[in-house]
C-alpha cells in the first residue's frame, strides 16, 4: 500500500484488500466466522474515519477516532487469529498487518495531538 496517500484513502484501500483476502479464507466454520468479523472491523475503520473527518468539535473528533482505533486494533486481532489458526499464512497477511499497524499508529498519534490542543 502507498504510505504517501491520505489516511482516508488508505483506510478504504485496507477495507478493499481485506474484502479480497477474505474471499480466500477456507470456508470452514472458523474461516467463515473470522472472515465475517475481519471484514466487519476493517470496513468500519474507513467508515468511522470518514465520520471523524466530519466531526462537529474536537471532542467529537476524538470520540470518533477512538472508534477507529478500536476497530483497527480488532482488525489486527482477527488477522492474528487467521495466522495462528493456520487458516492463512503469515506471508499472505504481512502487508495487511503492517498497514493496519500503521493506520493504528497514525490514529493514536492524531488522538494524542487533538487532546494536547484541547
Description:
This protein is an all-alpha fold and 118 residues long. The protein has a single domain (7-117), classed as de novo design (two linked rop proteins) (Up-down Bundle), CATH 1.20.1440. It has helices at 7-22, 29-53, 58-84, 90-117. The mean pLDDT is 95.
Record the SSE blueprint.
Elements: H1 7-22, H2 29-53, H3 58-84, H4 90-117
Helix pairs in contact: 1-2, 1-4, 2-3, 3-4
- Using the coordinates shown, work out and report the CATH topology: de novo design (two linked rop proteins)
How many DSSP-defined strands?
0
H/E order of the elements? Answer: HHHH
Specify the number of helices: 4
Strand content: under 5%
Mean pLDDT: 95
CATH level-two architecture: Up-down Bundle
Keywords:
single chain, 118 residues, mainly alpha, de novo design (two linked rop proteins), 4 helices
Brief description of this entry?
This protein has one domain (7-117): de novo design (two linked rop proteins) (Up-down Bundle), CATH 1.20.1440.60. Helix content is 81%, strand content 0%.
